[in-house]
Amino acid sequence: MENNKPNHFIHDIIDADLKAKKYASKVHTRFPPEPNGYLHIGHAKSICLNFGIADKYKGTCNLRFDDTNPLKESDEYVQSIIADVEWLGYDIKNNILYASDYFDIFYEHAITLIKAGKAYVDDQSAELIKSTRGSLSAPGINSPFRDRAIEENLTLFKNMKSGQYANGEKVLRAKIDMSSPNLNMRDPIMYRIIHANHHRTGDKWCIYPMYDWAHGLEDSIEGITHSICTLEFEDHRPLYDWYLSQLKVHHPQQIEFARLDLDYTVMSKRKLKELVDNKHVDGWSDPRMPTISGLRNRGYSPDAIKMFCEKIGVAKRNNIIEYALLEYCVREDLNKKAMRVMAVLDPIKLIIDNYPDDTSEDLIADNNPENENDGTRLIPFSKELWIEKSDFMEDAPKKYFRLSPGKEVRLKHAYYVTCTKVVKDDTGRVIAIHCNYDPNSKGGWTDDGRKVRGTLHWVSVKHAVNAEVRLYDRLFTVDKPLDTKKHNNFIDTINPNSLHIIQNCKVEPSLNMIDFKQYYQFLRTGYFCFDSQSNAEKLIFNRTSTLRDSWKNP
Length: 554
Ligand code: ATP
Ligand code: MG
Prior knowledge:
This protein is of the alpha/beta class.
């Protein structure tokens, strides 16, 4: 199946490499998250790309944790990332790797570079190093420690490792070129001192490698062939190449692609963490979050996310994708998968005067008209039903096809009913509607050619189950929350009405069985799923999406 999908430029590069028998005709990719937050939909693009390539070329893709900064990382994040990648459907059991397992190897390679006169210990502070790096128009300034003797560098670096210095007191730098036009090549820092407990290596290390130094080595150690990363690393590629060629080790090809950017949301883990830490949302998996776990809790399917990643494609140029495309994909997918059920979100009572008092009957309902294999179920029908308040209007205009006095409508899977009268309270508010049903219209049709245009969903009062329903809107009110020209802080653009909770909704009794894996369509109101907080005492549903794009057609 994979092979029918259109090729993109990375496939072209790999095809050419395979033809040239580069890397012994193997394809080995990796997805390398830093465990400093939960994964978001942007990561899904990278996951689908890297695991998709491994599938297409019958190669391998590693899930590798780039866990090189103990200050920001944790095991909670590691576990959430594993769960998310598995949920997306990728088999990673045997391919979970950790950069922290290579710390000894990195250290040995650093010693090699020092011995070759290609790295030195610098006593300058990080701020000073930054300020002497120069600019695009001015060269950097050599550190006064740049020409330390190799022996001295070896001793000082070993002392760094053995914990003799405080944080920030020394760094190890590569000795490249302080006047390189590429700022990344101006003696970049390889190691810094951080006295902190690492979630996997504990207190074994107090020096930690910088991203550029570690990343190429991680790829090299794992025998990666194509190291795919986002465009902002294009300027880092010369450094990636420099380290690996100095060390004469296996040298993967770094390839950059455009990162996913979506409107009406933010996607950097740092920003998402701010939303979580300051309680603007209910944790990383809040259904409004663009995290994979948030989308899962919202009721997105892995297939919908994969469809989205396929539609956006892989290219070299950054652009902003409409959130509406993600919603389109979930509707497309859930239309095929969702079990159709009836739930009344804003109930009013409908009483069928000519239906027997103490009877109820089970009516047959198809579970999914898009897929016969999903079968049918029985739903109970009785004299008193809940229908939506918005499905009744006392003084209805001509084109109103729902219920109003004297009008006939179809109750889905049930009968035709004609409204006879309404009951009002003292204030004149309608509190119940009366009707008569036609016993000959069972199943919701007759063969007498009668035209009944409106079809309503309903739930039998005595069989109904109470539920809480959570309706969501976008988390931000503007398409570019991070546009600092328009607003000081993205927090100011949070939508105060992004969550609307409705209590005492009435759902059909089949929903009493909590099934977190099932996707539902509540007829006429949208796609829904059980919220992860649901339990036997309290059913909670999240609306995944409306049935149509309510943003385009409000
Ligand atoms: P963030 O800025 O959100 O923290 P990151 O790039 O720092 O993201 P990493 O954990 O380092 O996060 O990312 C792991 C992989 O996912 C990297 O290869 C990275 O390029 C890729 N990735 C991250 N964000 C996106 C995105 N928006 N679109 C595509 N790929 C992404
Ligand atoms: Mg990062």
